Amino acid sequence: MLISSKEIREHESHENSEKLALVKNILSANEHLPSTALRAEISASLNLECYLDLDDTPLEKSDLFVQLLKHDIIEDNADTYTRLLGCDWKTREHFIHNSRKFQEYMNSDLVKGDLDSLFLSNQVNIHIKNLITDNASEYIQDGTRKGLVQLVRFAIEHKRELSIDAIGKLVSSGVPTQDVVILLEHHLEILSKDAILAILQSLDGDYPKLASSARDKLEVPNTPANHALLKRLKHLDIVSAYNSKDNTIKVGKV
């Protein structure tokens, strides 16, 4: 009968508490009412006077929360998304895609385990990815290595600048050294000599040799970012000369 009618009529005389109890039963009846859209539509027909308590909202791997969101049965806020942390990424991804407010309440606690999936997703709005990148320092501390790698790749691909604070935190997080050098290029002209040397000391390969006082001979990959770095280091009287050949740049110290 419910499948046929898709609504419950003549409910005005009933208390809101009774309606809430009925909605809870309807939403939990996934075996008899497998369609999430239908369960949400029937629930919406009761014209609830308040949002449904999240504890009364069954957690399942489906678009149920999205359907409830569309009918304004649950609130679009951090508490609702927190409830979804107990589900799979696909369910959360679909919710983010359909949420109108996610970027307003998004924080590192909500997405720290999903950074890699979020940046790889075609459903997640680019404005959300930009917002995370622009506030990378907040997300780096709790992010996984895979998540931070994807964040950095997105920043490089879309030419988004990361703050010096964020770059400093990335150095010890396992992000590829060459990606850090690319991100550093945006700040070379404004960074002091000591600040640049401090970052170089923490990188892999021959970069720490650039920051040492020894006149070591060294090599770095032949990339535009490394050319920009060495040009700046030569201006700071750290590097005397450098010559590129094939895939490497041979560097001489002052």
Question: How many distinct helices?
Answer: 17
Rg:
27 Å
Give the overall form: rod-shaped
Number of strands: 3
Task: State the share of residues found in helices, binned by percent.
Answer: 40-55%
Mean pLDDT across the residues is 93
Structural class: mainly alpha
Uncertain stretches of 5 or more adjacent residues:
none
The major beta sheet can be summarized as: 3 strands, antiparallel
Strand content: 5-15%
How are the strands of the biggest sheet laid out side by side? 1-3-2
Return the domain count.
3
Termini Cα gap: 86 Å
Order of helices and strands: HHHHHHHHHHHHHHHHEHEE
Describe this structure in words.
The structure is a single chain. With 254 residues, the protein is mainly alpha-helical. The chain folds into 3 domains: 1-101, no CATH class; 106-175, no CATH class; 176-254, no CATH class. 52% of the residues lie in helices and 7% in strands. A 3-stranded antiparallel β-sheet has the order 1-3-2. A hairpin with a 2-residue loop joins β2 (239-245) and β3. It is rod-shaped and about 85 Å long. 25% of the residues are buried. The mean pLDDT is 93.
Could you write a compact summary of the structure shown?
With 254 residues, the chain is mainly alpha-helical. It has helices at residues 2-5, 16-28, 36-44, 64-70, 78-84, 89-98, 102-105, 108-111, 115-120, 126-134, 136-140, 145-157, 164-171, 177-184, 193-200, 207-211, 224-235, and strands at residues 218-221, 239-245, 248-253.
